[in-house]
Amino acid sequence: MRQVVENVESTKRQYALRGRATSLGWRDEQIVTIDSDQGESGASASWREGFQRLVTDVGMGRAGIVMGLEVSRLARNNADWHRLLEICAPADTLILDEDGIYDPASFNDRLLLGLKGTMSEAKLHVLKARLRGGILNKVNRGEYRCLLPTGFVYDELGNVVLDPDSQVGEIPNCFSCTCCMAYCRSWLST
User: Where is the Resolvase/invertase-type recombinase catalytic domain (predicted)?
Assistant: First the structure.
């Protein structure tokens, strides 16, 4: 999500595609922007509401064209990407990105879109490998710091210690009183 907040130029370019659709003949009221997945990984479509809506709209014949700067980034795994292509073909839904307009019903266009999807999936694999390599390097140098459970922090030496916050310090006092569950309830409600 940080990328969406800090890299606004990409977002502006995505929204500018609306103008491209009108220049291709679509009326403004025919254009639907689906941006609910913005900032989410395209690694899996199973929990991405926007992608699921897109697939549904295409399948129901409610989409004449799917547009994106890099449409293969809509789904960064080949199963989801090819499912979208297979639904676009019989629905006569075109696909547009910065490189051109494609007809998934055409073998050559589908072949090229398939390659774009494969390259997108490979990029995700390379990114994951880089991140993992960075983490392993930190581990080997003894500098890796994982997220700690609430109530714990790292001290100056890198040791895990109880958070010096006075409210955190009260938690053990609450549980040291083994005979009074009512005390715990009243303490937690304050």
Answer: 1-142
Q: What is the DSSP string of 112-128?
A: HHHHHHHHHHHHHHHHH
Contact status, residue 32 vs residue 21, Cβ threshold 8 Å: no
How do the domains of the chain map onto residue ranges? Answer: 2-138, 152-189
**Residue whose entry in the numeric block shows the structure tokens 């075109």:** 94
Q: Is 48 exposed, middle or buried (0-12, 13-18, 19+ CB in 10 A)?
A: buried
Q: What string of pLDDT tens digits covers the 190 residues of the chain? A: 455 556 678 778 888 888 888 998 989 898 888 877 666 655 555 667 888 898 999 999 999 999 888 887 777 778 888 999 999 999 999 999 989 999 999 999 999 999 998 888 888 889 999 999 999 999 899 888 888 988 899 998 888 998 888 887 777 766 665 556 666 667 677 6
User: Domain 2-138 belongs to what architecture?
Assistant: 3-Layer(aba) Sandwich (3.40)
Task: Tell me the backbone φ, ψ of residue 177, rounded to 5 degrees.
Answer: -85, 85
